[in-house]
Amino acid sequence: MTDDRWKRISAIYNDVLAKLEAERSAYLRLVCAGDDLLRREIDALVNADSPDGRWIAYQSNSSGRIEVHIQAFPPATRSGALPKGHWTVSSGGGTQPKWSLDGRELFYVGADSMIMAVAVHATAGGDTLDPGPPVPLFKSRLARGANVPPAAGTRAQYAVSRLSPAVL
Amino acid sequence: MPLVYSELHRLARRYMRGERHGLTLQPTALVNEAFLRLVDLRRVRWQDRAHFLAMSSRVMRRVLVDVARTRASAKRAGGVQRVTFDEELAAVKWSEDLVALNDALNRLAELDARRSQVVELRFFGGLDVEETAEALQVSTRTVKRDWRLARAWLVRELTKDSRR
Does B141 reach chain A within 8 Å, measured CB to CB? Predict the structure, then answer.
């Protein structure tokens, strides 16, 4: 990543955080117009953090297929230790993880563009998570591959509203 | 200098309290080592508390990463003795993770010095948001945002898609 690219990404990131949830998608569409990769980069960075700031959700193909993972990161803030804390929450593929506003569910786009939900409970003491099985919510018209531009008739992104995920 | 010592000790205790994976270094040993290194850095002048917090966080980082590196390589050489196998695995994993995080943080520093410093202060120095803001002379809001962005970036960096 070049310095200029990073400056752009971090500036947009700060702008996005300063906006209300409802205004973010429109803003991102505007500033990232024509640059799908930029949009995906920022989307991933903005949506990674759980609302309580303890967990990071991300997609990775470390298992050979792109799956959604949750990582405790960093490591508890004041104590500084690296707790063990990694969970693969999707199965059969998953992209675009986003937290529910209360942080108790993680949504993602599963196989066949199905929007999936995983219940996420912190265990007593809050040091580890106990993710439930993925539950299909509804079928979307989202493009599946995270790194391909959306095909005609499909959308690239979805957003989580106060009540539930919705396709933009 | 006694003030420097007690402040470092406080940081070290804070750090070690959350340590559950068999890091054998004791807080006092850590502080002694950190202190010796601080004294060794002759250019350092104790202008104010903020400067000290930043400096000691850097020292903590160096000490801890050195320990982690030693331990990770001791494991490879087969020289680590632990009470249980699980404990040993956790300790080695912890050490490897810490070294990887340190490397990723160095890469972030090349891109973005301030955000990498936020992580150094908060994670290695154990500072809270207010102390970090004080040390960097920025607002707490900036620290919170930087912290959030840096964490997300670091996780992506540490788990990079090999096909990307």
Answer: no
